[in-house]
Amino acid sequence: MLGARGGWRALRRCASLPRAVRLRVREALGAREAAEAVRVQGWVRSVRSQKEVLFLHINDGSSLESLQVVADPSLEKRDLTFGSAVEVQGKLVKSPHRMQNMELQAETIHVVGPCDIWSFPLKMKERHPLEYVRQFPHLRCRNNTLGALLRIRSEATAGIHSFFQDNGYVHIHTPIITSNDCEGAGELFQIETSREAKESAENTHFFNVPAFLTVSGQLHLEVMAGAFTHVFTFGPTFRAENSQSRRHLAEFYMVEAELSFTENLQDIMQVMEDLFKTVTSTVLSKCPRDVELFHKYIAPAQKRSIAGKSDITHKLAWQEAPKQIPRPLLLFLQWGCDLQTEHEKYLVKHCGEVPVFVVNYPYDLKPFYMRDNEDGPEHTVAAVDLLVPGVGELCGGSLREERLPFLESRLQRLGLTDAYQWYLDLRKFGSVPHGGFGMGFERYLQYILGVDNIKDVIPFPRFSHSCLL
Amino acid sequence: MLGARGGWRALRRCASLPRAVRLRVREALGAREAAEAVRVQGWVRSVRSQKEVLFLHINDGSSLESLQVVADPSLEKRDLTFGSAVEVQGKLVKSPHRMQNMELQAETIHVVGPCDIWSFPLKMKERHPLEYVRQFPHLRCRNNTLGALLRIRSEATAGIHSFFQDNGYVHIHTPIITSNDCEGAGELFQIETSREAKESAENTHFFNVPAFLTVSGQLHLEVMAGAFTHVFTFGPTFRAENSQSRRHLAEFYMVEAELSFTENLQDIMQVMEDLFKTVTSTVLSKCPRDVELFHKYIAPAQKRSIAGKSDITHKLAWQEAPKQIPRPLLLFLQWGCDLQTEHEKYLVKHCGEVPVFVVNYPYDLKPFYMRDNEDGPEHTVAAVDLLVPGVGELCGGSLREERLPFLESRLQRLGLTDAYQWYLDLRKFGSVPHGGFGMGFERYLQYILGVDNIKDVIPFPRFSHSCLL
């Protein structure tokens, strides 16, 4: 099982297994020690040459921990440096050190690809700030922090797919290119063929009509919820916002769900909460060491956030003692202006730095598809936002207006009746009460890990004035 | 468990469970028959009114099968029609019919949303051709065939994520917007903000540089393979090809994987094959009835394809008797022109209408990043395509040129040295032999289901002159 190729990957994975299993693996390895000849491949994270012995740490990216290699000093070579790729043959043995399960006694060391350490921007054993490594989008994944981040992102992605599949949702690839503009927002990217862009020929669109990058899959999900009852999507969305803030990207990922036969905002909030808890507990169990790195070095003692020790307690509070914290705190908004970042901060602080649901927004602030609460003449709609400490809006959702006359009159006033004829159709043929929400995936990662800048939780950030690689 | 809300969804899921489990559920239901009061929600698929009894079939999209409702004729209403949304309260009982496990004896029937059957383009019990329903992108998912297709697509999506996660790959969201042009192909979509598009202001790009929709995540995956060894991505890719063919879309999905420390094309082919087999067997076990629909009505007796009975045999042959079929048939291409559709067809036919790997393409035909085989002066590169009956190219992959001098001289000749400085960097800092491949997700679905037109295997097809919704 641990022989020859791929041996180390198998071994490394043990690190993320429950302690009991890990111990069993260690025992098994101990017993077969002499026979355990393996070939290990990876990149050198440290070289320490002593008189009698050469120590290497090598890493293949499958976990934060590196494997210690112990070798005879005669095996040292000039190009065996930090960052070089190596292949080591040797025997896996129990380590005499408390900090690691085992180490590799090298018989041969082959440098597969050298690394010019003078021009390599990452340095051995240096804790580079996130701002520094951000300058090197093609190399920063080799940094410990970004490596941990991307493993967590990968596990969270898998966790999101599992959550919805396990709960009977059908996954839909909502389109990236669309002729719709869901939110009515002006901040859109438009698409043309390279040739059109050069000729700026207004009347020869590739798709015959102007086409844009999607800002939300919601309307398309509503189509699908009319057939599959529960549907979800998880893909890229876009905003051409001229902002370099730590909270905005031009390209980011959104998880969106839509539920038919849903009459209550509470049901939508329940799915948001279940999604958050399930995915977070997946991440915590799948990559504890990676998460620990963030809670230790990136957001230490940041009590207001889910990062640090407090978040674990906090998560438990959600799960085990829901009455101890004022959640869901249902605020009926009385003012007529939209929530700004400062309002969000105030609300979250007011509630004791915990996640807060805000419901029932003023009618005029929200898009045409949100359901009129009929608590007054066009007074409020059944909308909900989930605000979290440090990040602000994490999720936004609503019940959708399923009643044809309400929707018709609203679209008519906006002059959108023709453009949304297909959307009105959905209310003519077996319309049902329904609702849904979207969660910003990068903001989710920022929140659970306490990462301040959204550019540090996505592999290749795109924002105004920057599209590297 | 089966009480009140969501009862039917739980019940419907039973249909996809192994027979033994289904039987146990049936027994349990039988025993508790009298107490089994449930509320079921869905859309009416058929109404049949007899003198003594009213039969309904209702469906909530969780499976192809509908639930039979038996009611007193007094419960019939004028708006209880095909396509309407209903909520039925009643008792679940064992069905006297052999074809179904159980039926619902209705106590009340509430029409949640009526359906104007005269303007509704789908008709009761009619088998609409795929070309017909394609005209109604907002309603076609309520058609049996498209419903089955999208459930299969959802399961295949989950299967792809599981396959890679289970094999230790890290998932990467490669960027959609990029300043690179991976293949050097001219058929790109360019992105501008809506304002730029109107003003056609050449020198005020949102990202400072011209930006395009990705045609492949490969180069970005190579970045990540240098840190995580094994990585994959599964997302949308784009071609501004002016084609309305049954094989091309402007927006389609691609699964891509990249493997470090890989020196052999055979290893890449093995991953392609494992991926194909694992995902296909997931789909077959998760939605057997949905797949059956295609093999029965859409591609009956289409022996050359994996659809119909033959494909199952064929799949088994791959798994169980790999020596019986001439695969992998490694063709060393001697001619200097690229493979056209007709060549692909010939090769597949020549090999007995089975999937065929074609390897080692002429050097000049392939992009700059493919690895020189050094079997002559710039003679061939280590590329591989997987051709399948009926569809053509399903996968394409290669070893990548990891040797700095080879890559440098090639980029220099193309005048691309400056643009790809970051890509050359990857060869300076711990470069390793590596390779990878991409699989067209829609073509995969076309192939396993025998669907002729690619527009019928994606929720919202985008192609030249068409971007509906």
Residue windows where pLDDT falls under 50 for at least 5 positions of chain A: 1-28, 301-335
Strand fraction of chain A: 15-25%
Largest interface: A-B, 108 and 108 residues
CATH fold-type name of the largest domain in chain A:
BirA Bifunctional Protein, domain 2
Task: Please identify the structural class of chain A as seen in this structure.
Answer: alpha+beta
Radius of gyration of chain A: 26 Å
Mean pLDDT of chain A: 83
End-to-end separation of chain A in angstroms reads 39 Å
CATH class of the largest domain in chain A: Alpha Beta
**CATH homologous superfamily of the largest domain in chain A, by name?**
Bira Bifunctional Protein, Domain 2
Strand order of the largest sheet of chain A: 6-10-11-16-15-14-13-12
Give the oligomer, counting copies of the same chain as homo and different chains as hetero: homodimer
CATH architecture of the largest domain in chain A: 2-Layer Sandwich
**How many discrete domains of chain A?**
2
Report the biggest beta sheet of chain A as strand number plus sense, adding barrel if it closes: 8 strands, mixed
Give the count of helical stretches of chain A: 13
Number of strands of chain A: 16
Order of helices and strands of chain A: HHEEEEEHHEEEHEHEEHHHEHEEEHHEH
General form of chain A: elongated
List the helices and strands and how they pair.
Two copies of one chain form a homodimer.
Chain A: H1 7-14, H2 19-31, E1 37-49, E2 54-59, E3 67-71, E4 85-94, E5 102-113, H3 130-133, H4 144-166, E6 170-171, E7 177-178, E8 189-193, H5 194-199, E9 211-213, H6 218-228, E10 230-238, E11 251-260, H7 265-286, H8 288-298, H9 309-320, E12 331-332, H10 341-350, E13 356-362, E14 380-388, E15 392-400, H11 404-414, H12 421-425, E16 434-440, H13 441-449
Parallel strand pairs in A: 3-5, 6-10, 12-13
Antiparallel strand pairs in A: 1-2, 1-4, 2-3, 4-5, 7-9, 8-9, 10-11, 11-16, 13-14, 14-15, 15-16
Helix pairs in contact in A: 4-7, 4-8
